[in-house]
Amino acid sequence: MRSYIPYVVLSSALVQATTFRPQDAPPGTQLLNVVFNGNGCPTGGATSWSSTLNGTLSFLTPELKATSGRDIPRAERRKVCQANFSVAYPTGWQFGVKRVRWSGYADLASGVSAVATGFVYFSGETDDKIWVMNLDGELHKGYTAAYEPASASDVSWSACSGREAALNVKVESRFEKPSDNSLSSITIDEFDTQIQWRQC
User: Fold this and answer.
1) How many domains does the chain have?
2) What is the rounded distance in angstroms from the CA atom of residue 127 to the CA atom of residue 3?
3) In a designed cystine with 86, which of 6, 32, 34, 127 is the match (CB 3.0 to 4.6 A)?
4) What is the predicted pLDDT for the residue at 126?
């Protein structure tokens, strides 16, 4: 089942703190592997990422730019990039998403509408968190949006059994109402996922 989450547009880099306090990553925690997939992050492209298992998993997506307009192929109207982070951790601990933040630029002609979407879920789970930001033209500006769970019960946690979990972070930019008469584009340039730990 998918959970659709409202976003909060940020006027600064700060967001309101949650009512629970995450713990540091337990000893022995390791980031085993990171795999990228999608037409917004092609193999050998310029996509880069950084991480700290006590803080943020982030990646840059300079090729995640959806475009519509005259003579633009339909395939260019939707761009996707998914990162799969494989994390090993000890039994008795769980990790989950504390905050999601993404930013990009919208250059939309009048009458054109597009969406910037984020998905966060664990491999093998059916309940993924989805954040949707709707953008309507005429619009020519950068945007930043974020979501933060209000309590621990709102967080999707990894299994308590430990060993290994794969956290998938997927971002997508696409046109809901394109136009063949004018050139428009929407990007997602950066996506940050802040993680947190707890004992279970």
Assistant:
1) 1
2) 7
3) 32
4) 64
* Dihedral pair phi/psi, residue 26, rounded to 5°: -70, 160
Q: What is the pLDDT at residue 33?
A: 82
pLDDT digits (tens, 9 = 90+) for 91-145: 999 888 888 888 899 999 999 999 988 888 888 876 566 778 899 989 999 988 8
Query: Would strands 163-177 and 113-122 be described as parallel, antiparallel, or unpaired?
Result: antiparallel
Whether the pTM exceeds 0.85: the reply is no
Beta strands 128-136 and 2-5 are parallel
- 148-180 burial, b at 16+ Cβ within 10 Å, e below that, comes to bbeebebbbbbeeebeebbbbbbbbbbbeebbe
CA distance 185 to 135: 11
Query: Whole domain around residue 108: which residue ranges?
Result: 2-199
- For the chain, the straight-line distance linking the first and the last C-alpha, in angstroms and rounded, comes to 24
Residue 21 is predicted with a pLDDT of 43
